[in-house]
Amino acid sequence: MLTRPAATRRRGRRLVAGLAAAVILATTACSGSSDSDGGGTGGKTSLTLSTLTAPLSLDPSQLAEGQQAYLWSSIYDTLFSIDNDGTLNPNAAESWKYSEDARTLTITLRDGMKFSSGDPVNAAAVKATLERTKATPGQQQGKLTRVASIDAPDDRTVVITLSAPDPSLLTNLAYATGVIGDPKTLNDKRTALDPVGSGPYVLDDATVNGTTYVLKKRDDYWNAKAYPFERFTVRVIQDRTAGFNALRAGELDVANVENPQVAQAKAAGFDVRTVKATAVAELVLADRNGTLLKPLADERVRRAINMAFDREKIVKTFLQGSGQASVQLFNPKGVAYDAALDSTYKYDPAAAKKLLAEAGYPNGFAVTMPSTAVSKAFEPLVNQGLADIGITVKWDPVPPQNTASSVASKKYPMIFFIVGLSTSDRELLDNYGPQGFLNPFGTTDAELDALMTKAGTELDPAKSAALYQQINRLTVEKALNAPLFYIGTNWATAKGIEYLGTGANTMTTIRTFAPTA
């Protein structure tokens, strides 16, 4: 068996199908104020985070990633963790081993971990939580489809047997899929709102569900030193302008600010750090078999679509510089990214029209796309770019609550969508896996499938990275989708708080922030 060391695969992170109430909403949250200073260091010991929405549930089987992770990642431990540089590390799992065929994962848990109730965190708890998540419909269930069985031969050992290699399993176990719940209370009503957790914080009685979540640090948590804030609050502030005003008023320590607000934030004394890529906007060319729209089965057509957009101009004018032009789907901080690929498709409507003519569509064609909360702001850009090469778009209105289901419906051959960046393994499976969210038709490519199979069984980090770069190159050259640009985020922090993110890990967690001296 091959042993996985403590800090190996460096990757970027997280798939979030962010409903874009605003353009930048796809990946991040506003954050809030702290109310006290540290004694000896002068740093803050309390932090308030403000999110746009309240968590739907804190039940492990119902967890959602994105902004809700601020809460559940503090209440629950995960088996693994991904640090701010994108490195996968042990967490509740002290070590792990994969079998040679990558179908058996053996995890050794840390000794002495406890739930907030005082009961031990053990292999039986891990087994119970994972089996319940696998059996319960929810956002995490699909991430365990390749898990054939879970065994707990002793208190510190968990053995996960797979029906087929799953290259995203370790990453998933570092996110919501890998939380550890208390078997005694998992099925209790309290779990949805006030669970017994295994993590560094517990909900305080001052919590008002749906509005304000107050968390206090557990002194008996095994890794308490990694969490310098003794107390923090997650407030629900649905309006981004209200969040910025609260920041300026001194009520908040941290906030996402849009480009026009950056100068104001700096003038007011806030430190502003920009992450150029936290989400990617793309035209999902879902029907690559041409089932609904025959032209999409032709690579020349897909390449023409990629040549129809002036990506640099879009970033400069529409995003006001808060982003980065790209023809790639993969996180720039991840192992799959290759900067050289961004020269593959230059903006060239004339050449695009020539390709369409060669494919048999000299007069272009028409396509129906879902008009969703994600696409609304960008529809004029899509209309213009495609119209310039002869493709006419009809937008079919979709209620906000049906945005995700419209992708899965197989009604639309092309879809505009924004997804939060993730690790290379998750990005690959979400976009091109047979059950990937952004591959609703389950379209396949023989060459890509062969590379994905190799990547799924390759346990050497360097060889794995090389395979992911091959995969990225193939998806770009065959124009399997049409990425347009990355969306960035500006973080403004008040005195006493430091933002530690680099873009390699875009999971929202309190460990992205630290008190300063």
UniProtKB/TrEMBL annotation:
The GO annotation for biological process reads:
peptide transport
Signal peptide limits: 1-31
Membrane topology listed for this record: Lipid-anchor
Q: Can you quote a single GO CC term?
A: ATP-binding cassette (ABC) transporter complex
Gene3D superfamilies in UniProt: Dipeptide-binding Protein, Domain 3, Periplasmic binding protein-like II
Indicate where this protein is primarily found: membrane
Q: Which Pfam families match?
A: SBP_bac_5
Q: Which residues form the Solute-binding protein family domain?
A: 88-425
Under Gene Ontology molecular function, one entry of this record is: peptide transmembrane transporter activity
Q: Where in the cell is it found?
A: Cell membrane
This protein's UniProt keywords:
Signal, Transport
The family classification in the record reads: Belongs to the bacterial solute-binding protein 5 family.
This chain belongs to which protein, by name? Peptide/nickel transport system substrate-binding protein
